[in-house]
């Protein structure tokens, strides 16, 4: 079915297509039997695909990566599509419009996207309120991806992460600290060892309410050197956070089939060109750490085989975004079947 509507969607501006699909899906799910129909078409359940990772139970290991549902507006709809977990955000303390449009571009020949969205979101308080009123709150694992506002200086960034952490603590199951987006000026400088350790330690110190704590993960860029990846391994061990998400989008444009103006657009590249590099980073972290912490693998997953490669490289779970756009919701089911049946 997705093959029939994809040409129409790809004839639209990418951001317009995103809102059209999301809004249409939301309307469909409000119809009697809408969610049930989606689950019957796209869902797949099997005891062999359940995962226990950082203290949480995932009904399957295929998640929706951050960026698709920035404001926690489509959690139940995405869960009906068969995702085992949904990561909302990136959210910031204060609402912000993001960068000027156009800011999202398709590289069709490469099955890729370039985005420079710039953490456009309605603010963490809006997302938290939506999550608080979900009807089936426990039907799917929910992650909260948190960042800093564009106009917050890096030396004050920790305060933005604290605000988002406190706002979402009661309504998400795990957190992701995003210091790796290339679209907020200076953000990636927070991946350096000293500022990153400070942010993570600060969050860990307040990571308890009664007897409840939340797994905290770090999302990293694919453009880090081996030396920087070694620092990441050390930081995860030193701070005691739960794990790593590898990887965010890349600044590299190496090996693209596309040509012309699109390839020179500023922003982070995602999709097939990232497949190999993200898997390399997963394998490096897993080998270097001796499997000391879980890794969520994301980047260029367009087939069930590519998801399997990331799991074999050391990932415990995987996430989709660009592959989901190009391949449609059937990709989730295909991956789950591949994992269940080998």
From TrEMBL:
Substrate binds at residues 70, 115-119, 178, 183, 248-249. Its cofactor is FMN. One of its GO terms (biological process) is 'de novo' pyrimidine nucleobase biosynthetic process. It holds the Pfam family DHO_dh. SUPFAM superfamilies: FMN-linked oxidoreductases. FMN binds at residues 66-70, 90, 145, 178, 219, 247, 271, 300, 321-322. Gene3D superfamilies: Aldolase class I. It is found in: Cell membrane; Membrane. The active site is at 181 (nucleophile). One of its GO terms (cellular component) is cytoplasm. Its main location: membrane. Residues 51-341 form the Dihydroorotate dehydrogenase catalytic domain. One of its GO terms (molecular function) is dihydroorotate dehydrogenase (quinone) activity. Keywords: Cell membrane, Flavoprotein, FMN, Membrane, Oxidoreductase, Pyrimidine biosynthesis. It catalyses: (S)-dihydroorotate + a quinone = orotate + a quinol. It is a peripheral membrane protein. Catalyzes the conversion of dihydroorotate to orotate with quinone as electron acceptor. Monomer. This is Dihydroorotate dehydrogenase (quinone). It comes from Parapedobacter composti. The gene is pyrD.
